[in-house]
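A protein record pairs a chain with a discrete description of its three-dimensional fold. The following entry can be read in just this way.
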Amino acid sequence: MAAAQDTGALEEIIVTATKREQTLQDVPISVAVTPAAVLEQAQIRDLIDLQSVVPSLKVSQLNAVGQTNFIIRGFGNGAGNDGIESSVGVFIDGVYRSRSAAALDDLPEVERIEVLRGPQSTLFGKNVSAGAISIVTRKPESEFGGSAEVGFGNYDSKYAKASITGPIGDTLAFRLSGNINQRDGYLENSTTGNDVNDRDRWAVRGDVLWTPTDAVSLRVIADYSEINEVCCGVVQLRNGPASQVIGAPTSVGGMGRPIDDPATLFDGNIVFNTDPANALSGRGISAQLDWEFGAATLTSITAWRNQKNQSYQDVDFTGADIVNKDQANDISTFTQELRLASSGEGRVDWLLGAFFQDESLDTGVDTIYAGDIRGYADRLSGPSANSPGMSNLQFFEYLQGLVTPQIVPGQTYFQPGQGISDHYAMDQRSYSVFSQVDFHVTDRFTLTGGLAYLDDRKEARSNVVMNEPFSALDLQNVPQLPYLGLPANAFAALGGLQFFYGNTANHGPVNYPNANESGVLEGDKLTYAVRAAYDFGAFNAYASYSTGWKAGAYNLSSDSRPPDVNGVGRSAGPEDVEVYEIGLKATFNNGYLNVAVFDQSIDGFQSNAYTGTGYNLVNAGEESVKGVEIDLSYAPTNWLALTAAATYLDAEYESFTQAACVSYDTVRCPVDPLTGRMPNFRDLSGQRPAGIPEWTASVSATLSHEFGSDYTMFLRGEYDYVDDTWLTETTPPDISTWGQSVVNASIGLTNQAQQWDISIWGRNLTDDETIVASFPTVAQDGSYSGYLYPPRTYGLTLRKRF
């Protein structure tokens, strides 16, 4: 529900969270709804902005515009690794978006956004083990109309959006919309002098609605979008010894190259030797048929989508030219959903559905050494005690060269152009059948049962080529050294320079399918939900138990290892979700209060920890979270509307014995003095998972006032709070524990007769300085990097409706 601007009464919000229209207060699940008016007033342009009004939802964009992570109630994964699908399903007009980047485009003509919390498998066909985000756009209308808006802001922001709708004959209507969004970057690369974290994107969308009869409608939507941005800036949280070597003057043995200073995290400067580049395009077409006949309605949604994403980045994040990454993917997805739902006029409401997905994915990452790599490796290896003037690496090459002349000091290992090429292809076919039955025992008491069967098959192929001879060495058994009278492990301490496959038995990739690995990952699951709801008059109450499931995942990154090599990396098994929940939805004079209390656990949580060169993909034994969600809306007068929402999460790893080892945890991850290597795993059982804040909250107040019969003015303020949270387990908590305290505001004037309005808005007005994600710096052990929350932005928007 939302407060009306001209009265103290509340307008009913209609949602389709249960695949049929119900009011927000009647739907017996935990769902947050953001209507179009709030989206406009709060200047919510994409799903990253949406989290400011939905505390249980967290959205983060990482080192590329194609890497976006959605988390509900602390659960969610998949960012940065194309083989892992999100635990939060994103649907736009009923169409499933398989990869999160496809939902990042600036939002079209939106009617509302529904965030459904907890497993939704009995109503949605795919990957909703943690929840779902459903975006509903405005349909074409049978009368001509439209809107146009332009906006300007700081950082030379320019924004334009237009939409027109109307009839094409008696039974056909259309809506055509488009937008363009540009902005300078709010960071500056001090090495190149160019802006970073800019915005440059545009999209067009065509929507046609055919209603030949009152019982039949067909809606066809086609869209295309592009993003070409210099993104995303990274700051240093800590410079370890390796980074300090890069920054130290040459007079003391350093490289004399600029590095970022952790003491100036928020000065707006970053240090890359090249600017990061991103190019992403998305296109798709969908058709939805709704056919009402008698006691039921048949719905068919057919869709095809394609997404291409390419990025190029300096991933050592310094002014030295050490290593660069060229990454791209191409994802094509076909989906088909069929639903048959009862009319809702009897004692029993029912829904039957089926979902099918066919997806092909090609992805590749080339991590290539650059011009400064050799000097960097020599300095990391340290000066040789046996041969003054040589590094340990050079002396190692010299000894090898005595037996193998092809090995030349300074010319064999760590050369520009060497590196690793990770290329993968994956075909996925999945289907599900789902059902739900609501039995209205009385006019007030309803029992609900849902059942879903999900089946998933992934067939993956790898083509990984390592052109990096040093990582391919077994440093404890180099053939040449025994001939020279040296022990076999004389240079094992150089293992810290083996950035790829140093801790595997074969010191190299193993491609699949092969004799031992089929490259096929299959699984299926029966999930269900039961719920009881009672209407007490002044409030509704419900209690539910539900299960969810997400299929197994392949690790499409450099840390992908065969299952018999250290037991880590190749794939992860499915996630099984179980949730107990009770809720209360109370409606009172000019307001409502919704409360949900839940106990949610994931057995086999797919942990996707970034370790500095790749992703450590393993299943945690069990992760659980107990929590409370509160949503409040109150309009005490006809000129004031208040909202408040809060989420409390008490999370724990019930069992996690194979968490990725990290260098800062010297107790659980001691370094072997003979190899220079840590164990692969540590035990995090009993520990609170990183990335899950204990408290999140948002509040808003909207003042509105009419001037005569034509003018209405509003003033809106928002406060978004996230308590201090350890961001990720692979970075030390003392430098990666951050919270948020963000203030947004807007003021606007509307002329109702002439249908125009003007608004002034600001986001993060207090310029809250915080970090939203952290990770180990690439190839610099002991160094850690992070991503900044956007600084203060503000602007002016002019809108005209007709």
